[in-house]
Amino acid sequence: MKRLKDKLIEFAEKDHSSVEKLTEAFAELAPYFLSGGCIKVREDYRVYPTTVEFYFHAEIGVISDPIVYHRNNKYVDGNIPYFPIMTLHAHDSGYDITFENPDKQYRASVLIRAYQVWDIKQGCWLKWGTKEQQFRKYVNTDKTPINTQVLYLKYLLNGFPMNGECLINWVDAKELLAFKTEDGRPRKGVDKYNEYGVRLKGVPDNRPWSFSRKEYIQIS
Length: 220
Known about the structure:
Elements: H1 4-11, H2 19-35, E1 37-41, E2 45-58, E3 88-91, E4 94-98, E5 106-119, E6 124-129, E7 134-137, H3 154-157, E8 168-172, E9 191-193, E10 199-204, E11 210-212
Antiparallel strand pairs: 1-2, 1-8, 2-5, 2-11, 3-4, 4-5, 5-6, 6-7, 9-10
C-alpha cells in the first residue's frame, strides 16, 4: 500500500481545473486519511480520523476557497510561506493536515472533523466528556466512540517541549482497513462566496468535499 505522503505528492499531478476533477482526486485520497493510518502522539495516543473535510485554494487559478486559513491575503498582508506536505496546522476551527504546493501555487489541506482516540497505555477508546470537560474512558452507554469536538484535539496535540524531538507522527497502516467511505458531502457550516470574495451568509457551499467512514474502528 502506498503511504499517505506519497498519495499527497501524487495529488500535485492531478487535474485541479474544476470542482469535478478536484472532487474525484479528493475521493481517491479520502480512504488513506480515514482507513490508512493514524496520528500517533508519543507512546500515549493514536488519533484515527473518521470524517475529513478537504480545502483547496488556488493562489493563481480558477478554484477559490476563501475560508482557507493558510493563504495569501488572509488576515495578514504579504506572501505566506507554503507549509511542507503533512504539516499539522492548528487554527481557529481545529487541526488540518496540509498538502500545499509552492510550484503550482495552491493551498490544500484536510480538516479533522471527527475522530477516535485510542489510549495506548490504558488499552481503551477515549470519549470527550462534556461534564468532565476532558477525555475519559469510552463506555458502552456512549452511543459511539467517535468524537466531534474538533477544537478539543488541543488537549492531545498541544504542549510539547521544544527539544527537537518529533513527538507527533502519522503512522501508515500496512494496508487500507476494510472500511468504506461515504460519498462526498458538503462541508459543515461552510458558506458560499461570490466571485468578488464576499461571503453569502446562510447560502451553503455545496462542493462535496467532506468524507466519512461508514463504520468506526473496533480494537479488541
